[in-house]
Amino acid sequence: MKMSELPIKSIDGNAIQDINGNIKYVFEVFPLDFLQMEEFEGLGYLEQIKNFLLTTTNNYMLNDLNTTLKDRLKESSKRVSFKCYKLDDRFFIECPFEIDFLGAKNATNYFDYFLAGHDDFYGDVNFGLDSFKINGIYYRLVNVYDFADSHYPFQLSELGDQLITFSRIPSETAIKMLDNSRKLHVGNIGKLISDESSENAFKQSEHLVKELTSGLEGIFESEMWFILKSESESRLNYLTNELFSNLKKLKITPLIETKNSFAKLVPTLFFGVNSEFLRCHPITSTYLCNVLPLHREHIYEDGIEFQTRSGNKVFFDNFYHAAENGNMGISGTTGSGKSVLGQKILDYSRLKNRSVVIIDLGESFLKYCEYYGGNIFSEKINPMGFRDPEFLNEFVLSFIPESEISTKEKGKLFELINNALLADVLTFQELVTYLDKELKEISYYFSKVWPYISNDSFEKSKITYFDLSLYPKDMIPGVILFAIKYLKDLGDSSDLRTLLIDECWSFLKRNADYIEECFRTFRKHGCAAIAITQNIEDFLTLGKISTAILGCCNFQIYFRQDITTNSKEFINPFTQELITNLNSEKNKFSEFLVVIKNAKIKKVCRYYASSLELGIYNSSHNEKTKWKQFKEKFLPFFTYQEVMNSYVVLNNGGQP
């Protein structure tokens, strides 16, 4: 059989004309993620699909009421059918008209997503008893021979590639069908009414008649297939058994299509070819909404690949073009996977040639920086490396308690710093001496930090690491401010850069206004901040700083944690429930919730780290001790990467 042997006259873009003159249009649609929705949102989405079904099929019903339903179904050439495909996690709807539904756009290369997708593939079809092989790929069609009485919405969407065809039955015909069922007191007619009892069936059919009459419900003839494919017959059999097991749990009766039906059936499954309705069932529009494959687990179109609980792929990138900003808060208990995820996000930035700056308190990110050859700052910094009066003003203020400087003195400080720069003051020691002439005894605030101040120039790197444990406590705010300024000066707005700050936000209370301004304006500089802490409560207790971390972060990523009274005011009940049910498995996967501000995205994701990633990212105390001993033994003889790779192999019994 050749492509030309299909009952198709012409194909023009997304428009297909069959030999009877019927024109169909193929659209790619982008379903919403039902699992992210609160109850009211989910009901609204189902209503949106139902309205689409009822309104778009109004003018495409079979209206010959003088023949039996069976006879009318035989007149398939006169009957316009609708099709909904889920193929390779892409979704297509075939209609006899243009649609504006779920972001529909004209489909291109849509034949590539059904079977082998080549013009000449029909010349190489090998039919088996219950499967067929095209261009080295094995296929099997599994029909839903009998639907269950009810389904949770979109349960079937998770079971693989599928096709549903459907055609509207006129309300008058549907009511006649129900009249017959009521007269016979039959409790199950194509799932139109349940089979609990004859009396219940009668009441349900009465209600359904009222809804049909008022236009709130519709009856459709529908048929559904699962399309299984694999590169080997044994794998195809495995997939079939897995599908049958899942269908059995849902009380669905499947039927494997055999060689006897292939010749008549297979062509009708293609885009543009009317269905024969050989396996049709009458079902309500409400039921059809629940089984149509119009749900996809989704965050963004590309980015870091994570998995969902269902095993589907989702993609995340905090620099995604549609994001309000790239700032991110990550919170979760010790050992939940915060630093592992943080390093995965940094590594994606590295692979995208973006710069990263890491501010660490506890060496959680040191291995990552050493493995990829980052610039590890020593215990000295040179604040005068940035001749920026605003930065230097904040840097000096970070050493002075709020209660010991007035608003007037702050204004004077900024003016003096400007004057000092104009006077060509070159070192930080000279700057403090200059300030001390007008702001008496200001130099005493810096008595303990002079050993950590340098006058040397410093290199800029794609990966830069600051270890706050190397500096005295009073200097930590200044080091963080230095790192933020370093980040902003790494490039222009086209050079995307990420700042990660781990567990040290309480040091910045004196500089809350400056931090908020940085977070708020990072996007226009091509920057994004990742703030990590043990619990969302930690952010909420930081006063003004919390505005920067929570108010200016487009993304919140939650690992499992206790939801306190304060955090309940920030997190709605639906999100609280999702967080409470999170569960990571050590050394297997980290489970977390991605919440995106103003995007209605609340997605539970899993990250399965590779052996090498676990070796680099693991920052537990025991792991750091083991690695330190191993490193000290072999680093004199090999490169850091060679030592780490060997360490991973020895600890995991396989390649890194």
Description:
The structure is a single chain. With about 650 residues, the protein is α+β, with helices and mostly antiparallel strands. Helix content is about 35%, strand content about 20%. The chain is built from 21 helices and 24 strands. Strands 1, 2, 3, 4, 5, 6, 7, 8, 9, 10, 11, 12 and 13 form a 13-stranded antiparallel beta sheet that branches. Strands 18-19-17-20-21-16-22-23-24 form a nine-stranded mixed beta sheet, with helices on both faces. Strands 14-15 form a two-stranded antiparallel sheet. A hairpin with a 2-residue loop joins strand 8 and strand 9. Helix 14 runs parallel beside helix 16. The protein is elongated and about 100 Å long. The two termini are about 50 Å apart. The relative contact order is 0.10. Residues about 65-70, about 70-75, about 115-120 and about 185-190 have low confidence and may be disordered.
Oligomer: single chain
Counted beta strands = 24
For the terminal residues, how far apart are their CA atoms? 48 Å
Task: Let me know the largest β-sheet.
Answer: 13 strands, antiparallel
Mean pLDDT: 86
Q: What are the segments in which pLDDT stays under 50 over at least 5 consecutive residues?
A: 63-70, 72-77, 116-122, 183-190
Number of helices: 21
Proportion in β-strands? 15-25%
Radius of gyration: 32 Å
Helix content: 25-40%
Helix vs. strand class: alpha+beta
Q: So what's the overall shape?
A: elongated
